[in-house]
Amino acid sequence: MAFPQSFSGYQRITSSGVIGTSGNPLIFYGYSLHSGGTVSSGTFFFNGTSTSGGTVFQNDPSNAAINADKMVTLPVGVTFPSGCYVSFDGNATAVTVFYTEAF
To answer: Could you tell me which residues come within 8 angstroms of residue 22 by beta carbon, excluding any fewer than 6 positions away?
Structure first.
């Protein structure tokens, strides 16, 4: 799926929240998880603007090591028709998401 008018880029967030413009459709291609002083796991990507949207993508079972980045890339983009909300545990210091957004 491609958007006729779109923006491609990345966004780094330091707490759970919306990626891109709230409610705009986007295609998600991967992310980087940075772990803090303890091992981080549990990164979830929801369709919509909060955790009440269905879970579209969940990270793989392995964890980011202490004070390290873990990069996850997808072979095919995942579509979020109502926007994307990212939720991650308190052991992560930041998540950077790579995406294309319709506008």
So the answer is: 49, 83
CA-atom Rg of the chain in angstroms = 13
Task: Supply the pTM of this predicted model.
Answer: 0.85
d(CA 70, CA 63) in angstroms, rounded, equals: 8
Q: Rounded to whole angstroms, how far apart are CA atoms 19 and 66? A: 25
**pLDDT of the chain, 103 residues: tens digit per residue:** 566 677 789 999 999 999 999 999 999 999 988 877 776 667 889 999 999 888 888 776 556 666 778 788 888 999 999 999 998 887 788 899 999 998 7
